[in-house]
Design a protein that fits this description.
Length: 64
């Protein structure tokens, strides 16, 4: 469980940094925090959940 949590945090932070970098080049005056934060967090969550399901990590799994 700790591995998936750390992976989620890492992927979300990398996504936020990349999204912030892309938003620097957008010509709009106002870029909301929702544009920068939400898509990377949602994508990281979906990836981690899919990976956990693929690896068979469920409620009955033993945490190392």
């Amino acid at each position: 469980m700790k591995q998936f949590f750390l992976e989620f945090i890492g992927l979300a932070l990398v996504g936020i940094v990349l999204s912030s970098g892309v938003c620097l080049f957008v010509l709009e005056d106002i870029v909301s925090w929702q544009t920068i934060v939400l898509p990377p967090v949602i994508i990281a969550a979906i990836y981690c959940i899919a990976k956990a399901l693929e690896n068979g990590y469920g409620e009955d799994a033993v945490d190392d």
